[in-house]
Every structure is written in structure tokens, then in C-alpha cells.
Amino acid sequence: MATIAEQIVTQPKELEACCQYLSTCQRLGLDTEFVGEDSYHPHLCLVQVATEAKTAVLLRAKVKSWTGRSGATGTGTDAVVVVSGSGPPMRYSGTHTILGELVGRVIGTAVTEGLARYVRWHARRKPYSRVKNL
Q1: What is the pLDDT of residue 134?
Q2: Which residue ranges of the chain lie beneath pLDDT 50?
Q3: How far apart are CA 24 and CA 82, in angstroms?
Q4: Is 70 helix (H, G, I), strand (E, B) or coil?
């Protein structure tokens, strides 16, 4: 495996260049746990909280991945966006903060309700499905 130099993204232009490069990669691993002053830390914490909450619901519900194997995490299809408002700046927003807890609850509820809706929809549609194994 090739060694890749670590780069710290602290400016919007650097993030844009990073995203452009990453969009060309076939596979991507991302770890948002870091310590960074004057960076995207609070936003990345919320992405991490949202992903963790969604994954917990999927694992608890024993959802299978698209390959049919158990343990779907949904991370291959994640689309998490964090938008900043005009409120006070936050230096941290992980799971042990009020904001992180609220985001985790909202995501957990949304994914749980989404799975329930899918199950109900799928139960009504199943006799008419042309797709194998549905």
C-alpha cells in the first residue's frame, strides 16, 4: 500500500480542492476524529454524529447491504450536509454536546421512520415486484 502524505484542510479553497481530488477516487476511507483549531471541526463532528446515529439504527434493524451481507451501514450512500446559520460559533459539536445529542436523535428518528415506511411500501408492492428477491 502506498504511503500518502497527511494534509490538513483549513481553508475553503483547500476543502474544494480536496473534494475535487476525492471525487476521482474509486474507494475512500474517512476519519473525522481530529483536533483542529480554526477548522471545520464542528461541522465534521455533526457529520460524524449523523453517520453514527444512522449506522446504529441500520445495525439494530439488521438491514442487509446491497451485496446481501448483513451489517449495512449506509455509509456508501451517505449524503450528509451541515449548513451554518447566523448563531454563535461552536468549537465542538460531538455526541456529548446538546447539539450533537439532538442531531443524533433527529437522524435516529428519521432513519427509523424511513425504514418503517420502506417495509410498509415493500409489503404492499412485493406481489407485483419484477425484481428477484424482493
Answers
A1: 43
A2: 129-134
A3: 23
A4: strand
Burial of 45 (0-12, 13-18, 19+ CB in 10 A): buried
Cell for 43?
461541522
Contact 41, 91 (CB under 8 A): yes
What is the Cα Rg of the chain in Å?
A: 18
49, three cell numbers: 454524529
| Residues in the chain, total | 134
72, three cell numbers: 449495512
pLDDT for the residue 126: 62
**pTM of the model as a whole:** 0.55
Query: Which string of DSSP letters, residue by residue, matches 76-117?
Result: GG--------SS---S--STTSHHHHHHHHHHHHHHHHHHHH
Cα–Cα distance measured from residue 36 to residue 59, given in angstroms and rounded to the nearest whole number: 31
Instruction: Identify the pLDDT of residue 133.
Output: 47
Distance CA 37, CA 24 (A): 29
Is residue 100 within 8 A of residue 49, CB to CB? The reply is yes
Residue 73 and residue 21 in contact, taking contact as beta carbons nearer than 8 Å: no
> How far is residue 108's CA from residue 97's CA, in Å, rounded to a whole number?
16
